[in-house]
């Protein structure tokens, strides 16, 4: 995986000196116990770093500015153990620029009914202090995540882990650079967009290169490097020649090996993490990149077909967000192709003409070499497979002219009813929630594209949190969606985000 930094998250506990040094010693001890437990729970994907108790305006401001300048700090977790006067946090919050989590918890799980006294009450005031702190963050209109619950509970720890994933996505968004090879497909609307506004909102750099500039890197790949990668292909994947001459088949596969190596060298040298291609402008390339792009996606690069730079950046972003997830099931570029409308068996066949990431594959992965009417080049080799079953999300980032909207659909991936022996592409079959009819209608009302960034490993909540941090609209299509309410939500959002 072409991964992000080894991030950490700072744990900052708020208090004040009203109750004396002994109380402050307990506050520090308790917060250290919580941090140690979070780090040892095995659920969080990143380390939590304990920081000394924050009790003054100056210390709060200093700590937040140190967090800003620490490249390994991806966010701050705040908790008010006792009462912390909220005005003390104003300057620090004003100058803080990274993701913020307000963990609303308390050290003790249960009220100690037999022994509770005023000393205990004064020391353990999270229900009081967190509200004071929450008020000032709301008044200052600062975007943050609030998670309430007991710190030892697995459900709370999982929510913290999910927020960490989103926070890394927020941090890494400003480091995404997309390489556009050629331009968007002619007359296609959804692959267009305002690249300047995307850089302002998300931090993405989107640059264009003539196709023959990257083709020169492919041309310069040595035959020895190509042969070695072809050997890797043949050892890793099933080879389905399907009647083609084996030597001729291998030559087609070798073309993709050269493209993979050449493209990766180009992207590494020029520091790009996502790429788009277009079948209408291939220059001196012998094949439309297929297997090569699939392999690059598996390594962590983003991709969008036909010049779709928004989806390429989102695929890269979502791969970064899932990089630390245990037992990840995969993230990929995807495209809506055709429906099954048989009652009780409704769903969408997802695929692309070549480029679906093998990280989402279930079972054997094969190499096929088949004609492709688009591109006017020789038959491209590609990886063919079916995808895993399970829950996922499909996302579409669209440009509405005056603003961006992120559309998120919960989907349930299933196995197709029958094999498709004549379809030489990787596929996924899913049912949009709440069902195909409502899901598809809502998607179209929202203006969703036919390209998506899809993942088994992220949730709608995580992507909504990312959108909120970016200051853009997000709409979710899920099991609770009905068209009347959804259309009203779009109308209300159009007023809020105008």
Précis, in short:
This protein has 498 residues and is of the alpha/beta class.
Structure commentary:
- Helices cover 39% and strands 23% of the residues.
- Strand 3 (73-80), helix 3 and strand 4 (100-104) form a beta-alpha-beta unit.
- It has helices spanning 21-40, 57-69, 90-95, 118-123, 126-139, 154-173, 195-202, 211-219, 223-236, 246-270, 291-298, 309-321, 436-446, 460-470, 483-496; strands at residues 8-14, 47-50, 73-80, 100-104, 145-148, 177-181, 205-209, 238-239, 274-276, 302-304, 331-340, 347-351, 361-369, 381-387, 390-399, 404-414, 428-432, 451-455, 473-477.
- It is elongated, with a radius of gyration of 25 Å.
- The strands form 4 sheets. A 6-stranded antiparallel beta barrel has the order 11-12-17-16-15-18.
- Helix 8 (211-219) packs across helix 10 (246-270) and helix 13 (436-446) runs parallel beside helix 15 (483-496).
- With 498 residues, it is an alpha/beta fold.
- The two termini are 38 Å apart.
- Residues 7-173 form the L-arabinose isomerase N-terminal domain.
């Amino acid at each position: 995986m072409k991964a992000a930094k080894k991030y950490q998250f700072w744990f900052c506990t708020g208090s004040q000196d009203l109750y004396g040094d002994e109380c402050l010693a307990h506050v520090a001890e308790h917060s250290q116990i919580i941090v140690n437990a979070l780090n040892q729970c095995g659920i969080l994907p990143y380390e939590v770093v304990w920081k000394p108790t924050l009790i003054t305006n100056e210390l709060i401001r200093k700590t937040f500015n140190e967090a800003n300048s620490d490249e390994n700090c991806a966010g701050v977790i705040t908790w008010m153990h006792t009462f912390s006067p909220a005005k003390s946090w104003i300057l620090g919050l004003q100058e803080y620029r990274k993701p913020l989590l307000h963990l609303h918890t308390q050290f003790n799980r249960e009220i100690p009914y037999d022994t509770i006294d005023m000393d205990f009450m004064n020391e353990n005031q999270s229900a009081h202090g967190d509200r004071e702190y929450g008020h000032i963050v709301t008044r200052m209109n600062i975007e943050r995540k609030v998670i309430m619950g007991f710190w030892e509970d697995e459900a709370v720890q999982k929510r913290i882990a999910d927020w960490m994933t989103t926070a890394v996505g927020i941090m890494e968004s400003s480091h995404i650079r997309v390489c556009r090879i050629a331009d968007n497909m002619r007359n296609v609307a959804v692959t267009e967009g305002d690249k300047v506004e995307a850089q302002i909102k998300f931090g993405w750099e989107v640059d264009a290169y003539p196709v023959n500039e990257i083709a020169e890197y492919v041309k310069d790949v040595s035959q020895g490097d190509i042969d070695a990668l072809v050997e890797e292909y043949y050892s890793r994947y099933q080879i389905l020649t399907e009647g083609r001459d084996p030597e001729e088949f291998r030559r087609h596969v070798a073309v993709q090996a050269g493209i993979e190596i050449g493209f990766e060298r180009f992207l590494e040298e020029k520091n790009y993490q996502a790429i788009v291609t277009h079948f209408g402008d291939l220059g001196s390339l012998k094949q439309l990149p297929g297997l090569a792009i699939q392999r690059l996606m598996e390594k962590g690069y983003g991709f969008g077909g036909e010049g779709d730079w928004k989806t390429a950046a989102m695929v890269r972003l979502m791969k970064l967000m899932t990089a630390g997830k245990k037992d990840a099931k995969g993230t990929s570029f995807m495209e809506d192709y055709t429906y099954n409308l048989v009652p009780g068996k409704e769903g969408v066949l997802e695929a692309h003409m070549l480029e679906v990431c093998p990280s989402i594959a279930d079972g054997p992965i094969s190499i096929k070499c088949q004609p492709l009417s688009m591109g006017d080049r020789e038959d491209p080799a590609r990886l063919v497979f079916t995808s895993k079953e399970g829950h996922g999300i499909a996302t579409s980032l669209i440009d509405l002219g005056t603003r961006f909207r992120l559309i998120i659909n919960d989907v349930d991936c299933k196995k197709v009813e029958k094999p498709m022996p004549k379809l030489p592409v990787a596929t996924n079959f899913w049912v949009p929630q709440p069902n195909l009819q409502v899901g598809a209608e809502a998607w179209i009302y929202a203006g969703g594209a036919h390209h998506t960034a899809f993942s088994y490993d992220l949730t709608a909540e995580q992507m909504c949190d990312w959108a909120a941090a970016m200051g853009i609209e997000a709409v979710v299509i899920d099991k609770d969606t009905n068209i009347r309410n959804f259309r009203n939500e779009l109308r209300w959002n159009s007023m809020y985000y105008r």
